[in-house]
Write a structure and sequence with these properties.
The structure is a homodimer. The first copy, chain A, has 15 helices and no strands. By secondary structure, chain A is mainly α. In chain A, helix 1 (about 10-25) packs across helix 3, helix 4 packs antiparallel against helix 6 (about 110-125) and helix 8 packs across helix 9 (about 190-215).
Amino acid sequence: MNSDRPPSPVERFVFLVDKNLAQRLKRDERPGKSLVSAARYTCMAPGAKRARPRLVFHFGEAVAASEDARLAIAECAELIHAASLVHDDVIDDGVMRRGQETVNVLFSNLTAVLAGDLMFSVAFGLLSPYRPDVMYTAVEVLGAMTRAAIDEVEARGDVDLSLEDWRAIAAGKTGALFGWCGAAPALAAGDDDAAARFRRAGEHLGVAFQLADDLKDLAPMGNKDRFADLLNKNPSYPILWSAARSPVFEAALRRRWSREVSPEHAAELGQAVLASGAADATSRALHDEVDAAFDALGDLKDAPGVAAVANWARALLAASTVHQEAA
Amino acid sequence: MNSDRPPSPVERFVFLVDKNLAQRLKRDERPGKSLVSAARYTCMAPGAKRARPRLVFHFGEAVAASEDARLAIAECAELIHAASLVHDDVIDDGVMRRGQETVNVLFSNLTAVLAGDLMFSVAFGLLSPYRPDVMYTAVEVLGAMTRAAIDEVEARGDVDLSLEDWRAIAAGKTGALFGWCGAAPALAAGDDDAAARFRRAGEHLGVAFQLADDLKDLAPMGNKDRFADLLNKNPSYPILWSAARSPVFEAALRRRWSREVSPEHAAELGQAVLASGAADATSRALHDEVDAAFDALGDLKDAPGVAAVANWARALLAASTVHQEAA
């Protein structure tokens, strides 16, 4: 990227979202208080891609939502996302101590819990200047995300999880908030038809995002945690697809997952997943979700900002193909 | 109480709130899912006094709020209260493992966190049929409660906490939701003036409730956990009052709280608190809060349901006097 070029509108928007988040979490800070530090630490993580604010920006453009509404909704989405990560990372009595520098480790479990609660409150509070159903739908998203989070925990190690169950978890965990990032700007702009279409499209894109993530775990290049899903007994789409396809693989997976999994066993299972053609199947599922997203958009496919969303989805597809070819 | 007597309107109301909560948490239950079980376990605890639903019922009567609105608000308040208890009980890496049968022990930390999140979502969702600011103010209450919860954790063992800081914590922890139990039915009924008055009155009553709780810790009768605040380094109002009053006690407290406190040391400090006249001072503060609550009500003091709130406050005062005399 040429650094002399002025920032694009979406980059300018993401910069504003970052700035507002940083300011909001600073204003609130009192000396010696750890809560806001924890929230800040999570929200301002340097690697944050701000996928949700980008969706809000582009979908908002399509319905000419005001910049104020788009900023509030984007900030809210990022806070809900970050708060859900903080809560997911609370240590489960040593059962799933996965991260190393999560909030609960740096601060404490209780701080992580309360920081997340504060973020939910601040997030919803940002929506009060807009149509009431902007907040109502955000509250529903929290419910969907929470139910999916527990389903995901309870699915850990479950070889018998169906692909439909996998999709329901992905739709709740990622799709609900992606869908809201589309619906909320449309609701704020008073366009109920666009809201319904963007919600459905966003949900499909969220599931696509999750499929791309599952594929990434199989990719060999620059992937030092390759096959982490197999190691952590996380039943990803390709793993479940292989298990449904091959009784031999299913039996091997069941045997391995019934006890502690070594990195060597994970690698061995990973090669079996790849040999079964699961990467290809996952890529096809990803294409199907992106197609379904565009079907849901109908005529709005050609609206100004939606083209940028389409480009984003195409990049997701292209990346998944690269992973797959390399795999 | 005579069991032949038909239930009073408020008892019938509390029964309905219980029934609705149980139904709501049942409908949602799926086989093998622990999340709703955890929520249910917390909400349907047999000892729940339903203080918040009672406030909603009586304040709602004063402004003739519909029964639907009152039920939704009462259920919401009880869910927010229960969710905050679940989150407060998340084990802080062994630092403050106080309860024995809390959700995090029976289920797991992660289940406790997610159960609380689900309860917040369900709670707020109940409010969408009413004026939008009913939900907006509930979201603000979550923020106030969360900030107070972390302040309370950080105040643990703090001998230098001022009585003003103590009050701010009590106002956030208990007063904010009590105030909302008054304000929300008034907002739903479209009475903004009553909402503002009930909010202030409820906040004072919440602080009074907290003072009564602090006093109870000093009471000898039927109190097997007497002086738990001193044992757990929880700076209660009477403890802080004694420390502010007596430099000798303050020095002793600081010395004891700088290391592990034995039950014997807690009892010894407790006797010093009582000898300083702190129970009397706490009772005076409780009276002042109740007076302030009635001042805030203005002419609404004489409205129908408010008399029942007044009786409740008087019972709080009477009980505190008993504790104090027995102490």
